[in-house]
Amino acid sequence: MFRKNFVIFMLVFLSFTSVFLIITSDKAYAGSYNGQDLALAILENQSTLIGSSYTDTDQSGHRQATILSSLGTMTPTHGSTFALFSTGAAGYNPSTTNEANPGDERGTWFQGGKYGHPRDESELIMTLQVPPYMHYLYYDIQFFSTEYPEYVGTQYNDDVVITVNSPSQGISTYSIDINSGYFVWDSHGIPGTGFDVFAQSGWPGGVDWLDTTPRTPGADAGATDLIPIGGESHPVSPFEEITVTINIKDCGDNLFDSAAFIDNLRFSGYAETEIIARKSAEDQNGGELECGDTLRYTIRISNTGSAGQDDNTGNEFEDFIPKNTTYVPSSATANYGTIAYNTGENKITWNGEIPAASTRILTFDVTINSSVANGTAISNQGTVYWDSNEDGTNDAAELTDDSDIDDGIDQDGDGQTDDDDPTNKTVFSFEAPPTITEGFDDDTDGTIATQIYNGRQWFETTNGITGSIFEVVPSYHYQTSKSFKTKIRSTGSPQFWNYTLSNLESDIKYWEIWFRCGNTSEDSDLLLTFKNSNGQDIAKIKFEYTQQGTEQPTDWILEINYWKLGGGGWIKLNSDFSGGYLYNDWYKLRIERNNDPSYIDYYLYRSNVGLVDFKTDTNIGQIFSDLTSLEWSNSKNPILCPMFFWDEHTLGITQ
Questions:
Q1: Topology of domain 6-268, per CATH?
Q2: What pTM did the predictor assign?
Q3: Assigned CATH class of 435-654
């Protein structure tokens, strides 16, 4: 597999062999057009556009730039559209060769080829008229790249550069590249963008095969925060014509795609100073948030202004630990500054400076208390204290915002309702139902049966082996569309139905099932042994064919028995009806734990008849609880083996 240093090797090799190369200019483009649609998608005030042009290195179209209304976490910051510029194919998902999943990390390249010249490049140039009273230019930008994280600090340093040429104020630029160290998201935090890609090996490095299946480790791309840029960084003057150039290009090679989100290019009459604080919460245990789970809060404090926020007197950030939770000792972290947990006030504090156009990332963990009721909201909101007028005093406050929520309430009084919403999570304490059922109708014909309740698997069968049939079938059933067929000889024994009631945080109360059996057979039996997690028997049922005449196999009848403790042997069920044997019909068997734990209740029902036998007897020696498996076996090998069909399998459970 080629590596990125291949191009360096080739250039050195050719120089030593005295072969002279004529390298075409990095500015040789494959095509161009006026780019007006891209400009209009970006501009807050479209009337400021005088003219535009667009060029890129794509020989078969202009795929290196696109206009979108959304792409994963990317959404417009003004209006209904934004523009995305790329060193590869813009907006393709995932950002791999041929946009395949899995795909080659090398991505898409154009005229220059993988390792040649020119470098892949996309550029939009706009001529704008500055409105009256306007002195500064702003825009919203976010940079994505598959160069991150393994090529930080190398010559493979893809970049995006915004250049503003003002006749009165001169040339000003803003750039982001791989080596800037400003990446705050990895693949986990940017789903659906095309850069939510992960190394299939789990270890990003070199050239990898990528897919979009999340792995930790394995994240193989990243992004900066979405931030407004401008103000004193891009000064302009009223009424003049300025040129704005947006350029993104590969550096070092043409591999590994990068992209730039651009939107809301606007003019302002003053230098904005603004703090944006976002807060998210993630359940570290996965699934629904339950008592005892660990919740990790991540706070991103961004200074989007042109002046830095100093570490002034007092805290720059405070966050009280939410009710119904407990702080996890030593869990607070910060990428810069000093973070601490104040035990007396039960809150997190942070102190530090926030330079212009930068982000500070703080995290801390809490555990959900064990007594929290189902449906309780865990609500949390921190406060950033900052200096709005650069006088050295933190006179302004900004509440952290959950960007996924807009409660319609303006808490901070700025006239907006979508920038100050608390971060909420709801506790869903698991509550098992009183009964769970496996009807087999959602299983695949000819395979094993499984059953799940609320994402938790509690039942699975084994596969039948040579000498047995042990599978889901559609041909014969009770009330559902399928049943489970068994045809077991000793050569195919044992088979198992496995139960994981611990996944439901429950124990068994009763076991029941509808079944159908035939009368025709040879000498045969079917033994059902119920076992607990220690492998001990907690109940036994035996179906046995006995001969009543001399005409095989039609003179055989079926009896059902349960095992009695203390030498009592096998006791018949249905002994008071039909001579003690079963007809060729549907029956329901129920085994239930008695209120007295030393006894078990046995019930036998017949379709269209009702209860045909009931017995209460001493337990087999172990309490009928902690059901883990049901073992199916036959002690004989009949040529004409009897078939059983099992349906409407229900367990009564208790937490």
A1: Jelly Rolls (2.60.120)
A2: 0.48
A3: mainly beta
